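Hey, quick one: can you model this chain's 3D structure?
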Amino acid sequence: MTKRLISLSFLLYAVAAMAQQQETYTESLALGGEQPASSVLNKVASRLTLGGYGEAVMSRNFYSDSYLRYTDAESKRDAKSHGRFDLPHVVLYVGYDFGKGWSMGSEIEFEHGGTESAVEIEEEEAGEYESEVERGGEVALEQFWIQKSFCPELNLRLGHMVVPVGQTNLKHMPTEFFGVYRPEGESTLLPCTWHETGIALWGQTGLWNEESSLRYEVQFISGLDSERFGSQGWISGGSASPYEFKIANTYAGALRLDFVPTRGVRLSLSGYVGNSFRNTLRETDNSKNDGVTGTVAIGAFDFSFDRWNWLVRGAFDYGHLTDAAHISSFNRGMPNASPSPKQYVASDVYAVGIEAGYNLFGLSSKMTAENQKLYLFGRYDVYDSMYKMEKGTPYDWCGRQRVAVGVNYFPIRDIVIKGEYAVGLLGKKYNNEPSISLGVAYAGFFL
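Sure thing. Here's the predicted structure for all 447 residues.
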């Protein structure tokens, strides 16, 4: 079914593109145009953008995959290893420049083979099998927006778009991070890739020389749904909707600033503020819920350094949720049929991650001329999805560190082959989580 959907999507976009090309050519002839067909079609094709990214990975995890691995860690200390194959993300991007500053962009994403419902074993529900509906469909439309560009410094975008909070949401293509999987801290705490419907203003301007610039983006978007918050992922499930529409009883704002002082250096700040508690179909208008807003506030700093064969990237994220104790109680009282995970949620969380890689092929003029790269890298993450609780004791297994070392080989610019060895480091009463992962990915534009 997934393959059919993917093929159908490609076919529909191709037919639409050819239809647009034919229509433009026909209009040209009707107006007495004398341009040859190839010239008109090339002109239209030059306005069309096709691209995307995809990744196929495999892992061998040398620790227990039992739902009891945290509640009964001692009995799982000598558990057998287990392996997995996965297609984390396969994305098709289609854009078109209509002229006079108007353009369109869209992304269709197929996650984990294409379906967006899954069966999971819940650690906090006595190991029960639960069907998790992530976004209410088999294929996710991750982006669809119309944009009017007035000048490089001012662009208006309306529609469904990526929320650029944190480093991973901005740089989420597999060629933009070293690990086989996306950075664990940010992708655990925040929706990733985070996409919402709304309005955005963005622009970019040069500064004191050609190598320096400043980019900004401000968004007005729909709020998160606190019913979908949980202990392991904090607010990461709150952007998804189990319905055929996204509830927008509450609204939010997001901001991002990217400062490039010189070539190869980027410093960025991003943030998000919005209420989440009443953004649901469930009845909340009673005296017990008076004054409860569930305000989510996130602040993030990230950077990158890419010079002299070194590529270094890092990010720091801190999040706060008001009324976390009330939301925890409210969610845990939801009926069994509810799409809520029915878990406690923290008031404060954090994630810190840094990675550094050295391009060995940068020492060879031949490899550099062929645009081949071979990075040896290391990465360190520390994060806690239950850092602070308004009431109760945080789950200490939700706070962890992760150390990884590996290699990224780029035979050409848009393709990367990855390998990494990683260890998840937990508290003393838990078992560490070592793993080996391999992956191949691409990211680029075909047209």
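One thing worth noting: The longest strand covers residues 373-388.
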